[in-house]
Design brief:
This protein is mostly beta strands. It is built from no helices and 11 strands. The strands form 2 sheets. Strands 2, 4, 5, 6, 9, 10 and 11 form a 7-stranded mixed sheet that branches.
Length: 122
């Protein structure tokens, strides 16, 4: 089983930046999709960005041009660089790893991290 630990959340002013990290450990397949989701109070959890083992990426329209997902396969870590943050980005951000997959749109199976709070003030 895979364990995921997120870090890097916090309070930031609008227009600022944060970098989230998610370190994976355990039985990690060489082929996988790593992704970031977020969930605001009273709203559905939504996919923010995803990346395959080969480095292909996909982003939600709301964060394109502002967020960058990247990964370090040697460290089994995925990052989310968030720039030009808006109050609408306020949410709990969750890391997800889907094993044995190279499909950016298929994260049905996998593990969740515990989440890290991101709060953007106006």
């Amino acid at each position: 089983q895979v364990q995921l630990v997120e870090s890097g959340g916090g309070l930031v002013q609008a227009g600022g930046s944060l970098r989230l990290s998610c370190a994976a450990s355990g039985s990690i397949s060489s082929t996988n999709v790593m992704a970031w989701y977020r969930q605001a109070p009273g709203k559905q959890r939504e996919l923010v960005a995803a990346t395959t083992s080969r480095g292909s990426t996909n982003y939600a329209d709301s964060v394109k041009g502002r967020f960058t997902i990247s990964r370090d396969n040697a460290k089994n870590t995925v990052y989310l660089q968030m720039n030009s943050l808006k109050p609408e980005d306020t949410a709990v951000y969750y890391c997800r790893v889907s094993p044995f997959s190279d499909d950016l749109r298929d994260l049905r199976f996998g593990s969740w991290g515990q989440g890290t709070q991101v709060t953007v003030s106006s």
